[in-house]
Each structure stands twice: as C-alpha cells, then as structure tokens.
From TrEMBL, chains A, B:
Catalyses which reaction(s): (1S,2R)-1-C-(indol-3-yl)glycerol 3-phosphate + L-serine = D-glyceraldehyde 3-phosphate + L-tryptophan + H2O
This protein's name: tryptophan synthase
Gene Ontology cellular component terms for the protein in this record: cytoplasm
Pathway this chain belongs to: Amino-acid biosynthesis; L-tryptophan biosynthesis; L-tryptophan from chorismate: step 5/5
GO-annotated molecular function: L-serine hydro-lyase (adding indole, L-tryptophan-forming) activity; tryptophan synthase activity
Domain Tryptophan synthase beta chain-like PALP residue range list: 97-434
Organism whose genome encodes this protein: Streptomyces corchorusii (Streptomyces chibaensis)
Enzyme superclass (EC): lyase
Keyword Lyase annotated: yes
Chain spans, region Disordered: 1-31
C-alpha cells in the first residue's frame, strides 16, 4: 500500500437532508378506483342486445351462458353505473403500477411547433406491456373465485394472450390461447414469453378445434384473424366443459374493466388544472377506447362539440370508417351470437399486417352505439403512417410504442398540426395502449422499406 | 330509441373522496441525488494507474487524453468522494423515472420457501430497458457542453449502445456504435431500435476501422466481443478528430454515474427499516456493481463479514473466479492502455453466448481492487442457469429480465435457498440491471432446449 493518507471509506453525504421519496410498490390499493364505470346504462340509447340467428342452429346465446364466467355475465347485465372493484383486484392493480403515468409529450410538441398540449396515458409501462392486464387480472380473479381452473381465450396481436397468461399465473390457473396465426408467426419473442409464463398457444386457424378444422378444410381465412381465434376459443370451450371462455375486448364488462384508465386520466388532468378538448384511442375491440372515454360520457353529453372523441383504426380493417352498422357474427364460422356493430362482413378476408390488435372484421356494440349516435369520430391510418408515427415517438419522446398505439398517437399528431394552423391551444389526450418491444418485427419491416 | 327512462350519463362517482396521487413525470429533480459517489478515493488501497507499454508504440495514454471528454477525465482524476451532478442531468434522470422502484420479490420468496427477504432494484424499467441510461445521459450532457457533435462508443449486448443512441438524441448529438458482432447478429429488434433512434451501428469486427480490418485479416476474434468493439471505437475516434470516444463500463467515472442506484437503495431500505446483509450485482465492466455497492463501501469497512458483496459473472467469461489480477489491454489489438484488472488474457477467444453484456476478457480496475482486497465475493453461472433463473423470475414475479441480470438474481436465489437451510432471515438486494424484452432470442434458444 503506497501514497499518503487515504480518506476513510466515505460515509459522508453532500446533503444530509437528501431524502428521496421511496418508490416501493406498496400493494396499497388506495390510488386505484373503487369501482369500474359501466358504459351501458350511460349510453344515449339502449345497447342493441346480442341475439340468435334464424338458421336453426343450436342457440349461440345458450352456449355463451354456459362457457362464460358468472361474474362477467352479471356485469354485462347490470344497470348500475358503477361496478365495485373487488379489493384483491384493486391490490393487484396497484401492484402492477397503477395509476400509470400521464406524460406531457413536450419534445413531440416542440417538434410539431404546435400550440396544442399533448398528454399520453402510458398503459405501455404495465408488466406485460399493455393495457390488457387491467381486464385480465379482473377476469382471472373472477375465475379463481368461481373455482375454474382453465381459461380459454383468443388474441390478435398477442397482447391479450400475454396478459391472460400473466394473470392466470398470478391466480394459479392454466391458460389456453388461440392466436391469430399471422401475428403468432410474426412475434417470436412474445410467443416465447407466453410459453415461459405457462400459456398453451395455438396459432389460428388450427387443427385443435372443430372451427379451426372447418376453416382449414375450406381454405378460408388461412392467415387467421381475431375472428378465427374467437371462433376456435369458443369451439374449444364447447368441447371442454371444465374450462371457461373469456374475452379481452368488444364486450361491456371488458370496457368497464378498462375504465380505470379514464378515471385516472380525469384525476391526473384535474391535478394539472387541465380540461381535455380531445380524447383519442386506437380501436379494435374498443376496450382501451371505452376505458378512456367511458368516464367522459357525461362531459361529452354536457359539452357536445366542445369535447371531441376520436377512434383511430387501421385502414386494413376500416370498420368505423367504411363498415356497416348491422348485426353480424364476430367470427367467420358463426359460432358467436349475432351482435350489432360496425362490420366489414364475416367473409371479409383481412390482409396481412403488423397491426394485429386492430385486425378484426366486426367490433364492439358499445363503440357502435357511440359511433352511430355521433359521439365519436373515426379516422383510419395505413401501416406506413402508423410506423412513421412510432419512429417519431421514439426519436422525440424516447418511447417505443405498439403498432396499434401508433394509430392513436398519429391522430394526436394530426390534431396538433391542425392546431398549429388555427392557433388553438388544444389539450389532447391519447392513450398509449401498449409497448412495442415485442412488436419490433413490424418496425424492422418498416425500416427495411427505407424509413 | 326505446325503453323507459335512461339514467343520465353518469357524472356520479361512488366515492367523491377518491383522489389518487397524480403520476405525472414532473422533471423535478428533487428525488435524484445531488452528487455522484466516487469510489476511487474510498478504496482501501490506491487504484493502480493505467500505463503505457514498453513496446515502443505511440502512447495509448496520450491517445485517450485526446479522444475522451474533458469532464470525465477530470472525474477520473478527482480525489473528491462526491462529484456534483449537474442540474440538467438531475432533471433528465428524474424525467426517465428515477428513483427506480425497489421491488420486494414476495412470490419468489414464497416459491423458494425462504426466510430471506429479496429486494430487487428495478433498473429494467428505464426507457431503454437498462441502467446504462444513467451514465449515457451524463456523458451526452458533458459532450454537448464541450461542443462535441459526434460520440463514438462500443457495446456488448447492445444495452449501452441503445442508451447512448437515446441520450445522443436527447442532446442533439450523433452516435457511432461498434457492437460485438455476435450480439448484433442475435438482437435484430434492438438493432432496429438503435437505428430508429438515429444510431450508426457497425457489428465488430468490421471493415470500418484499422483495428477491425486487422482482426478480420488475421482471423482473430471473428465472433467479436466487447474488447474488439472497444478497439474499433478507439480506432475510429483516432481517425476522426472531431469525434469523442466514450465508455459505458470499466472506468471510475462510469461507476460513479451509476452510484445513483446504490444511493437510492440506501434511502429506500432506510424507509423500510431494513439493513442489507447481502448486495448482489452481475459483473461485466462492473458499473452496475460499482453503482450499487460504492455507496456501501463505508458500511462494508465497518461491518466486515456482516455485509456480503457478491459479483455474479458468466462462466463463459470467468474473470473474477478464474482470471489473473494483472496488467492487460482491454482490447485484443492493444490500442487501449494497460490497465490492472482480473483478466483472461487478451488472446482469450470468448465463446458464443446470449450474455453479451458480461462477455469481455478483462474488466474494471476498481472492481479488481475490491476483489483483490477481499471486499467482494464472486460466483459464475453458465447460460442454462441464467435462463432458468429468468424463467423463474417471469413465472413468479411476472418480470422479464435481461440475461445479464439473471446472473445477479441467480446468486440471490442461491443465497435465499441457503437461508432456508440456516433459518437466517437475511436481507438480500440484487440489482436487476436490465429488461429482457430485446433479448428474447436467448430465451427462445433456451426454450428450444426443452426448458
């Protein structure tokens, strides 16, 4: 040992008063809402009920009643505006990091030279990388309460399947997941994560179910879609009476479970002294849209054109912008009941895209009511526009967002550019429904196109 | 419109007092430490200085002085225990989400049936998915202050390159990144993200530099490693006088920049009334280890065997467990100065692994002093052990962690199992240095092996 005296190993600190807020997930549910907001009794017209067809087939409604969880059927039938969130669910929602941050996208605003203020609701920071966990936790809880051991479901981009595998693990359940084949084959990393979580995954259409076999035999919808996966999940549940079938979008209870998003946004904006002028969500089955906008339905009724609600969809599945508002099955084979929604028709073969979460031929009846009543506007973007927006977000905000979420942010960017023209200091809130780290194949393909 | 009276669109809330904490990244730096902790003056013996060889080659130390940022050279020479963090850097560290959470891994503890309490410091939640951002932001800031426009660096797994590309974007700089070829070819998704961020990437060894050409010509180190990438980055900086070369590990200033980790852990544990018995970090260039353990050096001096410090390394690059404590070059071609560290020798050809962040033949002099003085223990794990641990973390804590971080958690798991035998309610803290979402190729390969 050489040299002069060494300072004692340092216990000094330059500021003895530096005492940062400990950031320890507490599991304390106080910051999570006490109830879900139920959109259905708050719609301006009654929700068109699901119904059976006149084709002499066995009742699809009866099948749904048998294979679905009791609790969510009660929620869908409820006329209450608020559905209590079980304490255990509140605890788990706190544990995954709710409330999620509301980010002011200042760098994006500066780049756009807009007077608008853009707020991004960051559902992408949740453990599975998307908002889907909010409902997956609730439904896995209800399943465990009911004594169910195996859940069957479908997934499009894989966000819902990933969330169900995660939530199933949390409650000691097994998850069987039918995954739109085109997305399952793109997303090898997400496939690995779902399998590591213990999920049993089948790219759809598959040989695993009667519905899948029929599609393969007839050479229909071979790329797969959310619709083919819905059909197969129901078919599987039909053949496995011990299982229960759950959904991650479209239905009232799923939209209600997602209302934690909008309730948090309301509280967060109030704390900032802000009132939103525009709320934006991407729209596939409508659950992040319903979750963000449901708690604002009263404001919309009061403010009319003073509050703009926008659903951003994929131009490859343009239901709200080009579909018809009519009864249709949610799956190509017609194993689902007839539901009224904006639809492209169940024979519509969806093209291959990297936007699996928005890739279905029909959608949510609740969203359909909002659209048909003129409460929400709709815009459609193609894949190149979406990934351009994702690149913009990454470069300016440093955040890598899911391809689906790119549609919502694109709509926010368009509004912000319009605000530059009009000079209006508009307050825009867009929901970032998911993270893009497990969807990089789409970005890579986009980059290959010279982006 | 049919039916009876509809409830008015609901402005009701079940609990008018529900008033959640708004979670809005504030940019306010009050929760970020005011100073970095400098390990060097707090080592029990002086740090062995870097030196030139006796081979008649031009001075490598002179080259380092020319190509490195002035501020970090001042930091490396400082005898102060605390180096002030510039206010702008504190603001950016707050904006990326510091302090990061400290997670009690209760599910993992239950699975292990251990009396130990396992705390995980969650650096994986930062925007680029790893702790590397802490130093990248600091160095990009110093570069911008110095008027530098282009930064050149190396990266192993890609975490540092990703962080530098992100931080460079933040300060309007250009980043040139030499990336250990074996990792660059594995990680297509991370490659895409770095390119979208504007980073200029070269898998190493490359034809882009004199050092890379020499390796390719001689057929040495063709897989690439952190060492080949270091050599090429320095070679590039030598040939481009307008650029500056930065490092993401090994050197005292990098370890200091990472000391926000340990300072936060101290405050977070104090708030919980906890005193750590064991601190664990994975160790490649030693910066997450130094960052976690530096602020605990005084405690270690005081408590001796009462506080255990463990470095977890890769069995494919077993420097601390099987290397020699001697002077060596950090790159195979010898363009770096001679530094004293635990080394396998610069001719050691590292095998192909999915643990790129721990894959170098030598390491940090500071870590070497800690090891040679008996202050840190070392353990080595092979790739299968690491990915097994990653799968365990995902199944029990729902968190997908980087392959490097798996080594630290594995050591924590081993301690917790030992605690089960002894019955000791040990308090263990392990640093989760990174997220695994951009490293799924390794998990996929592991899954293919029947995991």
């Amino acid at each position: 040992m050489s040299g002069g005296p060494r300072p004692a190993p340092g216990a000094r600190t330059p500021d003895p008063d530096w005492n940062p807020t400990p950031v320890v997930p507490s599991g304390a549910p106080d910051d999570v809402p006490e109830a879900w907001f139920n959109l259905v009794p708050n719609l301006p017209v009654p929700l068109p009920p699901a119904r059976d067809g006149d084709d002499g087939q066995p009742s699809r409604l009866a099948l749904q009643r048998r294979i679905r969880l009791a609790a969510v059927q009660e929620q869908d039938a409820s006329t209450e505006s608020f559905l209590p969130i079980p304490q255990r669910v509140r605890e788990e929602l706190a544990a995954i990091g709710r409330p999620t941050p509301l980010l002011r996208a200042r760098a994006l605003e500066a780049h756009l030279r807009t007077p608008a203020r853009i707020y991004l609701k960051r559902e992408d920071v949740l453990p599975t990388g998307s908002f889907k966990l909010n409902s997956a936790i609730a439904q896995a809880y209800f399943a465990a309460q009911q004594g169910v051991r195996t859940l069957v479901t479908e997934t499009g981009a894989g966000q819902w399947g990933h969330a169900v595998a995660w939530a199933a693990r949390l409650f000691g359940l097994h998850a069987v997941i039918f995954w739109a084949g085109v997305s399952a084959r793109q997303k090898l990393g997400r496939h690995t994560v779902i399998k590591l979580l213990g999920g049993e995954v089948y790219p759809s259409p598959s040989e695993r179910t009667q519905v899948g076999k029929a599609l393969l035999r007839d050479g229909r919808h071979l790329l797969g879609s959310l619709g083919t996966a819905i059909g197969e999940a129901i078919s599987y549940a039909q053949d496995h009476p011990e299982t229960r079938y759950i959904s991650g979008s479209n239905l009232p209870h799923v939209l209600a479970h997602q209302s934690v998003i909008g309730q948090e946004v309301k509280a967060q904006l109030a704390a900032l002294g802000e009132t939103p002028d525009t709320l934006i969500a991407c729209v596939g089955g409508g659950s992040n849209l319903g979750g963000l906008m449901g708690p604002y339905l009263a404001d919309k009724a009061e403010r009319g054109d003073g509050l703009t609600l926008i659903g951003a969809e994929s131009a490859s599945a343009p239901r709200l912008t080009r579909g018809e508002w009519r009864y249709d099955h949610a799956d190509p084979e017609g194993i689902t009941p007839l539901t009224k929604s904006y639809t492209l028709g169940r024979d519509y073969e969806l093209p291959e895209t990297h936007v699996g979460g928005l890739r279905q031929h029909s959608g949510s009846a609740v969203v359909g009511v909002l659209r048909s009543q003129g409460l929400i506007d709709a815009v459609a973007y193609d894949e190149a526009e979406a990934f351009e927006t994702g690149s913009l977000m990454l470069r300016h905000e440093g955040v890598l967002i899911a391809p689906e979420s790119c549609h919502a942010v694109r709509a926010a960017v368009d509004r912000a550019i319009e605000a530059r023209r009009t000079g209006r200091a508009e307050t825009i809130v867009a929901c970032v429904s998911g993270n893009g780290a497990l969807d990089l194949e789409g970005y890579t393909a986009h980059l290959g196109d010279g982006a």
